[in-house]
Amino acid sequence: MNSSKMIPPMRVPEQWAGAASTILSFFFILDMIRRWCPRELYRRLTTFLLELDRYFYPSIRVSIHEFTGSNLRPHEAYPAVEAYLSVNSSKTVKKLKAEMVKDRRKLVFTMDENERVIDEFQGVQMTWISSKTRTPQGQGGPGTLYSGNPEPERRHYRLVFHKRYRELVFGPYLEHVIKTGKEICQRNRQRKLFTNGHHRSSWSYILFDHPATFETLAMEPEKKTKIIKDLLTFKESKDFYARIGKAWKRGYLLYGPPGTGKSTMIAAMANLLEYDIYDLELTSVAGNTELRRLLTETTGKSIIVIEDIDCSLDLTGQRKKVAGKNPPDVKKDMGKSSKSGDKGESSGSGTGSKVTLSGLLNFIDGLWSACCGERIIVFTTNHVDKLDPALTRRGRMDMHIKLSYCSFEAFKVLAKNYLQLEDHPLFQSIRNLMEVTEITPADVAESLMPKSPDQDAERCLRILIQALQEAKEKQEAEEKQEAKKEVKEKECDKVSLWVLLRKYLTPYTVFHLDPAICVQRE
């Protein structure tokens, strides 16, 4: 019997080496075809392969990107999808991202890039894949249409499902995902405070955790109630604004001396409405084009704030050049100025910013202001008389709120906040002093704040009374000084009139001892 030799089986490492060699050869040939194949032939070959893939590949892929269009605005569905997938991703996905939720007591997990999670809806399985695309410099991103720096990477989610479930996915399933995701976002939402000061061409943010409310705001109850009603009415007026054909926005002008609570008022508004805050630093904006881009990157349910607008830029200098024009004609008269603002004519008084008054007016209520609804614009100033009338008229700044010196009603709010007092025998003395003395709520709060553990409420009230008496004495001294100055100016006017009369009247004029009285006789 002939015995045949047994061939030893190929070892596993050699098998892997052969497979790797085959794969490398395939990619080498593919790269050579891409380089040396005529472009038209390569395009037709690629199209054929894609058609072949569509024919044999039974799945449909839907991508939801972080930004829409040319990356001008965040995609409203993206955070909802991210929140929805966070429920299942923590159970199956291996690479996760952890973030704090609203109460900062627990973490919320979402899947990291290049991870996938399987979701089931009405017995049908769908696959979600988290991915990231790289945008070449100068292609896509905000920097394409505007002067900002383009973002190199954009995140997106890809939904993959069988084509037989198209109607189910495009109908009930995606509606279920968006609705559930928005509910989760609302529960876990952390409001943010944005600023453009650190990065000129984009927004950066920190979590907004200011404790101010209207209950703790030092203000007369009637004025406070009026503002609260106006804010809540605006929040619920989406259909009303759509019916009258106006953008869903409202402007508030807060003006008054320093220390009267303008910034605290903004924080209280944000807490009442549960809005984000965008603190816009005009001196960091290069020009009108960048200002528009920053506006498009804001979201709904937000408050855009420009504090101390009279100091941010010289926005009245251009109005002097068009003297004699009516305020409604400003935008028309300064159309060229708006365009030249991006080319080199600065209105920033040495700040390097080329934002013009026309550009700011368009920012407030121009066509670009309607790019996102449910938005409040707030200006603050210490000198409202310095602002251009076109900037503060109704329709741009719809509600003007004067925050003045501390009244007795405002003091009672501060006393309750700082000392937990609703009444005290010293309150009457404080009331009498406040009726004749100007003092800001910030100064009152400083006097009421205990400086040591053994400083009781009565001691704080006496410190306030002392501060009021000093402010009263200072105020009386200033009034006396002002009265003396007025008397001196009147005497100077009389002397000047006497000199003019002596110079220009005829020699027949006879002057009495009082130089301000002149009697002419023949």
Automatic annotation (TrEMBL):
<feature type="compositionally biased region" description="Basic and acidic residues">
    <location>
        <begin position="328"/>
        <end position="345"/>
    </location>
</feature>
<dbReference type="Pfam" id="PF25568">
    <property type="entry name" value="AAA_lid_At3g28540"/>
</dbReference>
<dbReference type="Pfam" id="PF14363">
    <property type="entry name" value="AAA_assoc"/>
</dbReference>
<dbReference type="InterPro" id="IPR058017">
    <property type="entry name" value="At3g28540-like_C"/>
</dbReference>
<dbReference type="GO" id="GO:0006950">
    <property type="term" value="P:response to stress"/>
</dbReference>
<dbReference type="InterPro" id="IPR003959">
    <property type="entry name" value="ATPase_AAA_core"/>
</dbReference>
<protein>
    <submittedName>
        <fullName>AAA-ATPase At3g28580-like</fullName>
    </submittedName>
</protein>
<dbReference type="InterPro" id="IPR003960">
    <property type="entry name" value="ATPase_AAA_CS"/>
</dbReference>
<keyword id="KW-0547">Nucleotide-binding</keyword>
<feature type="domain" description="AAA+ ATPase">
    <location>
        <begin position="248"/>
        <end position="407"/>
    </location>
</feature>
<keyword id="KW-0460">Magnesium</keyword>
<dbReference type="GO" id="GO:0016887">
    <property type="term" value="F:ATP hydrolysis activity"/>
</dbReference>
<dbReference type="Pfam" id="PF00004">
    <property type="entry name" value="AAA"/>
</dbReference>
<comment type="similarity">
    <text>Belongs to the AAA ATPase family. BCS1 subfamily.</text>
</comment>
<dbReference type="InterPro" id="IPR050747">
    <property type="entry name" value="Mitochondrial_chaperone_BCS1"/>
</dbReference>
<keyword id="KW-0175">Coiled coil</keyword>
<feature type="coiled-coil region">
    <location>
        <begin position="458"/>
        <end position="493"/>
    </location>
</feature>
<keyword id="KW-0378">Hydrolase</keyword>
<feature type="region of interest" description="Disordered">
    <location>
        <begin position="320"/>
        <end position="352"/>
    </location>
</feature>
<dbReference type="InterPro" id="IPR025753">
    <property type="entry name" value="AAA_N_dom"/>
</dbReference>
<keyword id="KW-0067">ATP-binding</keyword>
<dbReference type="InterPro" id="IPR003593">
    <property type="entry name" value="AAA+_ATPase"/>
</dbReference>
<dbReference type="GO" id="GO:0005524">
    <property type="term" value="F:ATP binding"/>
</dbReference>
<dbReference type="InterPro" id="IPR027417">
    <property type="entry name" value="P-loop_NTPase"/>
</dbReference>
